[in-house]
Design goal:
By secondary structure, the protein is of the alpha+beta class. The protein is built from three helices and six strands.
Length: 125
């Protein structure tokens, strides 16, 4: 993560633009930036599980199809998930991906907290 913070900071100082991409599962050109691209492909997997609160922390580049099997090891699961599991968690959350059912909410509603790197290269949580 430190490398990405440094990269974003350097691009910011040069007044450049950085876009991030997870699975690049988009029907728009958002995953084809004009200047700089940061891939989340290697920022995948489980960071932490809290058995008491039944909460898990994942890297944003984790593909949705990877989440279920990882959570199953801890007897946990997502409440709801969209049909397309080739997206990353960050992509699915930021685009409002939802599953089915009138009483079930979107994937983003299952987020308790998150951390991110801002446009100046600082990590915030």
């Amino acid at each position: 993560m430190e490398e990405i913070c440094t990269f974003v900071s350097q691009v910011y100082e040069k007044k450049g633009v950085v876009r991030s991409v997870g699975a690049a599962h988009s029907f728009s050109p958002v995953a084809k930036p004009e200047q700089h691209l940061v891939s989340l492909h290697h920022m995948r997997g489980l960071l932490d599980v809290d058995a008491v609160t039944q909460q898990a922390t994942f890297w944003g580049g984790t593909y949705l199809h990877e989440v279920g099997p990882i959570l199953a090891r801890y007897n946990l699961a997502l409440e709801n998930m969209g049909d397309i599991a080739e997206q990353t968690i960050a992509g699915a959350i930021s685009t409002g991906t939802h599953g089915t059912g009138l009483k079930l909410t979107s994937l983003s509603n299952q987020v308790v907290k998150w951390g991110f790197i801002d446009g100046q290269g600082s990590y915030r949580k």
